[in-house]
Amino acid sequence: MTVRGKLTALYGGLFLLCGIVLLVIVYVLVRDALPAPTEFTNRLGVPLPDSQVAAPRPPWDSVVIDSLEVYRSATLTTLLVQSGAALLIMAVVAVGLGWLVARRVLRPLHDITATARRLGAEDLGRRIELSGPDDELKELADTFDGMLDRLSRSFDSQRRFVANASHELRTPLALQRTLIDVAMLSDDVPADMRLLGARLVEANERTERILDGLLVLARSDRGLSAREPVRLDHLVETVAGGFAGVEVRSRPWTVAGDPVLLERLVVNLIDNAVSYNRPGGWVRVEVGDALVVRNSGPFVDPDTVESLFEPFRRGSHDRTGEAGHSGLGLSIVRSVAVAHGGSATARARPDGGLDVTIRLP
């Protein structure tokens, strides 16, 4: 039962309980106010003026007494039945009024809920700003607004940090790579130093890939600042053209989102499927009601599939694996999908490999 239903039941139940108590009180008062037939007939005896001996009582017929008893009983029964019927009718009316009153009482909560649903990392400027007396609901709304102010400041700080980190971290990496490349141009560099330089360049490239992945992950976790129509089928065909042996079956599908993040999602999916495929295997991409990427890779334990969406996870190896991968591919895929209001799931194939499914609104 909803809160509105509970309040309505509470209002109706309390009204019915109070009505029953009132009906019992009125019934008891009326019953006591109506004299009994014998008491009524006894009051009709007239005493003698100069004597303490009461005048003889008239011979009341038993029919009169029975009639008075029937009248008293009928009066109390009529009072009980008609009052009970009126109480039931008013209880129904009270339930209807309670339903309307509960809606009015809960309206501020509906405003709070509606505001929370419209909120996103890209739009924290909405506030409830509930007006009215300083009651519990206004205190709740003001507390919610204060929380949004703190979240807005936190997200703004995070955006500035990501932007600054992108610049400050890329610059020294690019400088290191340039210095290594310049040092390797000399003809008198020993072979061991040239090998060391090649390994340093490889480590530098790996660091750049990890940095790029972390920045994309941070950007997608913040949500979307703007949306535009993107033909996902065209995007998939373009990205798949850069990989050998990828089979694409697509239907027209347009989604609203960030084209850069969606492209990164598709690139990571296909690159992951190609990189973790067995020799001579196949990779299939289907675009329809959902984006599905399948490959014929090695066997994956179904119990560990969900952990592949965690950062720095590569199958059964944690924070290890090929130097060409940062371990952020599927983490970025899920983050981008969630930022677009969708989902990313994976299923281990019985014969080896994965089926990764992306659903977007």
UniProtKB/TrEMBL annotation:
<dbReference type="InterPro" id="IPR003594">
    <property type="entry name" value="HATPase_dom"/>
</dbReference>
<dbReference type="InterPro" id="IPR005467">
    <property type="entry name" value="His_kinase_dom"/>
</dbReference>
<keyword id="KW-0902">Two-component regulatory system</keyword>
<dbReference type="InterPro" id="IPR036097">
    <property type="entry name" value="HisK_dim/P_sf"/>
</dbReference>
<dbReference type="Pfam" id="PF00672">
    <property type="entry name" value="HAMP"/>
</dbReference>
<keyword id="KW-0597">Phosphoprotein</keyword>
<feature type="transmembrane region" description="Helical">
    <location>
        <begin position="7"/>
        <end position="30"/>
    </location>
</feature>
<dbReference type="InterPro" id="IPR036890">
    <property type="entry name" value="HATPase_C_sf"/>
</dbReference>
<keyword id="KW-0472">Membrane</keyword>
<dbReference type="Pfam" id="PF00512">
    <property type="entry name" value="HisKA"/>
</dbReference>
<protein>
    <recommendedName>
        <fullName>histidine kinase</fullName>
        <ecNumber>2.7.13.3</ecNumber>
    </recommendedName>
</protein>
<feature type="transmembrane region" description="Helical">
    <location>
        <begin position="79"/>
        <end position="102"/>
    </location>
</feature>
<feature type="domain" description="Histidine kinase">
    <location>
        <begin position="164"/>
        <end position="361"/>
    </location>
</feature>
<dbReference type="InterPro" id="IPR003661">
    <property type="entry name" value="HisK_dim/P_dom"/>
</dbReference>
<keyword id="KW-0808">Transferase</keyword>
<dbReference type="InterPro" id="IPR003660">
    <property type="entry name" value="HAMP_dom"/>
</dbReference>
<dbReference type="InterPro" id="IPR004358">
    <property type="entry name" value="Sig_transdc_His_kin-like_C"/>
</dbReference>
<feature type="domain" description="HAMP">
    <location>
        <begin position="103"/>
        <end position="156"/>
    </location>
</feature>
<dbReference type="GO" id="GO:0016301">
    <property type="term" value="F:kinase activity"/>
</dbReference>
<keyword id="KW-1133">Transmembrane helix</keyword>
<keyword id="KW-0812">Transmembrane</keyword>
<dbReference type="Pfam" id="PF02518">
    <property type="entry name" value="HATPase_c"/>
</dbReference>
<dbReference type="InterPro" id="IPR050428">
    <property type="entry name" value="TCS_sensor_his_kinase"/>
</dbReference>
<keyword id="KW-0418">Kinase</keyword>
